[in-house]
Amino acid sequence: MERDCFIEIIHCHFAEYPHMQLQDLYKLVYQGAMGSGHAIDSIAAAEKRLSNELNTMGRGCADEKVVERLSLEIARVNLRPFVAYGGDTGALLQSFIRTGSEYCPGTVQLLRAWSTVTGFQNMFDLSEMNSFISMQEAAGFPAVHHSSIYRKLYRPAYRVVCIKELKCLDCV
């Protein structure tokens, strides 16, 4: 059941972002397994980055979803529709920070999710995927940025939070 739900999540992302590159897929899997802790140096820095992003994010796609699941436990909250629907960015920041401090990430989950993705998708070459994950593993599974293609086409602006945190955000 868990594997089937994860496969559905990945299919939705492939449909929503058809120009996703391999590093974008890794970022999705990484965030779903590792949460948001890597993006929080300090509360003040996280608050400043959110403020800067809110001030520079511009307009997005008309059909941008407020919430996109990344795994059974983790989701992205897209800033543009969140703000448009009256979301409290202070509450979102607190949910993001709680996720970063409370969610227990694991490379085992990351590797399991990557293995699942390699087993069903046909967007990327399997040998390229295996080579990519081997390089990430050798580097200690670092967080990566979205590809330039993804950034240009989809203009991502979001925060990663635990699904259980969504109840704290009134508009989702």
Describe the overall structure.
The chain has 172 residues and is mainly alpha-helical. It has one domain. The chain is built from eight helices and three strands, in the order H-H-H-E-E-H-H-H-H-H-E. The chain has helices at residues 2-16, 22-34, 43-56, 79-84, 89-102, 107-120, 126-138, 148-154, and strands at 67-69, 74-78, 158-162. A three-stranded antiparallel sheet has the order 1-2-3. Strand 1 and strand 2 (74-78) form a beta hairpin. Helix 1 (2-16) packs across helix 6 (107-120). The chain is globular. 28% of the residues are buried. The model has no long low-confidence stretch (mean pLDDT 89).
Q: Average pLDDT, to the nearest integer? A: 89
Strand percentage? 5-15%
Count of helical stretches: 8
Percent of residues in helices: 55-70%
Name the structural class: mainly alpha
Distance between the termini: 25 Å
**Would you list the SSEs in sequence order as H and E?**
HHHEEHHHHHE
Provide a quick synopsis of the model:
With 172 residues, the protein is mainly alpha-helical. It has helices spanning 2-16, 22-34, 43-56, 79-84, 89-102, 107-120, 126-138, 148-154, and strands at 67-69, 74-78, 158-162. β1 and β2 form a beta hairpin.
Structure characteristics:
mainly alpha; 56% helix; 8 helices; 3 strands; 172 residues; 3-stranded antiparallel β-sheet
Secondary-structure blueprint:
Elements: H1 2-16, H2 22-34, H3 43-56, E1 67-69, E2 74-78, H4 79-84, H5 89-102, H6 107-120, H7 126-138, H8 148-154, E3 158-162
Antiparallel strand pairs: 1-2, 2-3
